[in-house]
Every structure is written in C-alpha cells, then in structure tokens.
Amino acid sequence: MNSVISNSAASAPPRADGGDLFDSASYSDFVRAAMRIRQARPDVSLLFESTIREPADQLLEVIREAFSTDVSSRYVSVFTDGNHFAIEAVCKRYGLRPDQIIATTGVTSGLVMLFRALLSPGDRVLAERPGFDLVARLATAAGAVVQDLPRIAPGYGIDLVDLEARLRTGVRLVVITNLHNPSGMRLSPDEIAAIGVVCDGAGTILVVDEVYADFAVAAGAPAAAGMGPNIISTSSLTKVFGLFALKFGWMAADAQLIAGIRAAVPEGDFGVSKLSHAVAAHVLEAPAAFEAHWQAVLSVTRPIIEREIGELIRSGYLEGTLPEFGCMCFPRIPGVADTRAFARRLLAEHDLIVAPGEFFGAAGHIRIGYGSDARSMAVGLSRLREALNRR
Fold first, then answer.
1. CA–CA separation, 137 vs 202, rounded Å?
2. Are the C-beta atoms of 180 and 187 separated by less than 8 Å?
3. Domains of the chain: residue spans and CATH
4. What is the pLDDT of residues 157-171, one digit of tens each?
5. Which of 29, 99, 282, 329 is the most exposed place for a label (fewest CB within 10 A)?
6. What is the pLDDT of residues 232-283, one digit of tens each?
7. Which run of H or of E encompasses 63?
8. Phi, psi (deg, nearest 5) at residue 128
9. DSSP code, position 79
10. What is the pLDDT of residues 285-312, one digit of tens each?
C-alpha cells in the first residue's frame, strides 16, 4: 500500500495522450488526471467511477424549499459542535446519540482529525490491502508506521487468527472499509463485531470507513460505531447520495472516545460550511428522494454489470465475484500481472480508462464502477469486452 505523500510532477496536468496517467503517485492523482483527459477527449470512456451520479434536480428542489421565501431554520452556527439539526438527523438514521457524533467535511477530513487525535509518531497502524491508498498516506503523514492487513479474495474477509497475530506487535489503529473499497464486498455486523472484539483484546481501536455502507440499507445493518466501545465509524453523503457538493460527513463512536478526540483536536474541522451543512440537515431529515435516486441509478446500471461482467467471468476473460451491494467490483484479469500496462493499452487502443489494481495494492485486478451514466458505462463495457477478446 502506498504510504508516501508525493508533491511530485505526478500531480501536474497529464499529457493529452494519457501516457503518464498510470504513473500517478496515488489513486486520487489518477482520478484527477483521468478527468482532465476526459475533458480534452470527450470520446474516452471512464469505467472506474464509484460515486452515484449527482442528484442535481433533487438537491435544487431542497435548496429552493429551504431558502426561497426565508432563510432556513437549519441555517445555524457550526462553530462549536456542528449543525445540531444535521447531527440529530444522523443520530435518528443510525441509532446514535449526539454525544457520539462529530460533524466533518467528509471521511478524509474525519480521518485526518482522528489520526491527529489518536496517533503519536511511531505508532503502528494496520490498513487493509487491497485498499484505498489514501488511508495509509494520511496515517503516514500523522507519523504512524503503516502495515498491511490482508483482505482475502474472493469474499475479501479478514482472518481473525491472522489479525490477532498482527496485533501482537502493538498496533494503535486498524482501519478497514465496509463496503470494502475496491471490491464492494460486505462484512456482516457479526464479522465487524468479531473484528472489534479481537482489536479490543489488544487495546486497539478499529476504524470502519462506512462511506459506501448505505448501499446495503436493505440488509438492516447498524452503524459499526454501535458494535463496540473501541469502534469508530466514518461516513458522508458523498458516495451513496452523490452529494459531494455538500461536503458533509461525520465520525461516530462511543461517547467517551468521541470526547477524547474532541479534547485532542479542540478546533475540530475548520472546513465545515454553515450553508452546506444546513442543506445537509434538510437532506437527512427527508432523504426519500435521494434514496430513490441512487436506487433508480443502480436499477439500470447493475443489470448491465451483471450481464456483461457476468458473461466475461463465465467466459474466463475475468475472475471474481460480483458484490451483493454497491456500485463497484474488482475482477482479476487471468494472465495479466501488470494491469498498469494493460490499462495503458486500453486507453491507447480503445479510448477506455479503468483503474489498475496497483493503485489498491492488487496488481492483476481492475476496479470497475457503475454508479454513473448507464449509456456511457455500456460503451465502456463494450470496449473492455473487445479488448479482452483481442488479448
């Protein structure tokens, strides 16, 4: 897992032909560069996006209702403890209390805050692999020593015996995602609770990034923060609701643990917006339209994925299991060890950008996202199938 924050030329605008795209220093740099290529070359298909298409019409309607005749009553100060209307709505949705919540601008800022609060230079952190490289980079920036915690294919579970052995070296934090990024696979509440118990036995805090968890709302799973006194959840409205414009997120944990984080980082999150968090309160108080939006998107895109990716798996061109929930999967390409090189060929020969598994610590895989436009996704899948047929 990449644990170095780079300020190198990898962050510069990519060449128009995309030749340097897959040399990006991080997944975030790769995404930015891919978007710039798409702006310069509109015919290029993107097949890696894992965020639901923005519900702009629904968002505009909420803003109109909240501010058209007067300033919304939800437009309150966020300087001390965040927007209390939004926090109360989060509590109602996930069965938590206000003293268990800290509002943030998103999961990333939440991780920065809790790493500042809980880590000292030299502390050990276990970060899942394959996994989102930003976690390791943020922990390293906080002075931690980051080590891998294997997520085991095809279900991408966690071996509790292996975890217990790794914790014997003295680990301050274990950081995982649920739904798992990049595979989309889900850990059940019992599995999360069991991981929390193993961590607790070693005096370790478990951090669960649940930014994709609401995709599994039909399964009725509670927030991980309610499963043990040493478990912290982080989440936001960005991925499932597609409301990245609001910059509203939160962390949740046992009240005593939250109090400790507040005491260690008393300034909180400086980026919290009074206006956007007021809108977030309205969204969370009446989320039905936004839930209907993401469900409608996936009702169209998921059958396409099941048909196209399923056929590629049955034909032997790909290997893997489609997750039950969410909008991403992480198939392996048999016989391909260098998926950066394969992705370069996809862009050069097929006008297609996929996310190589190397960005997540799993060469030979590609991450495919299906939360956006169904038509463009279908084009991308057709190009992928053509490339695999020619390989």
1. 24
2. yes
3. 9-55+290-390 (3.90.1150.10), 69-286 (3.40.640.10)
4. 999 999 999 999 999
5. 99
6. 999 999 999 999 999 999 999 999 999 999 999 999 998 999 999 999 999 9
7. helix 56-67
8. -60, 150
9. T
10. 999 999 999 999 999 999 999 999 999 9
Distances (CA, A) of 349 to 28, 71, 343, 356: 24, 53, 10, 16
3-state secondary structure of 353: strand
How would you classify the pairing of strands 366-369 and 355-356? antiparallel
Q: Is the pLDDT of residue 98 over 70?
A: yes
Q: Find the mean pLDDT for residues 340-360.
A: 97
Strands 366-369 and 328-329: antiparallel
Whether 391 and 338 have beta carbons less than 8 Å apart is answered as no
**E strand or H helix that includes residue 84:** helix 84-94
Strand-pairing partners, residue 177, are 209
What pLDDT score was predicted for residue 17? 55
Nearest to 145 by CA among 168, 121, 174: 121
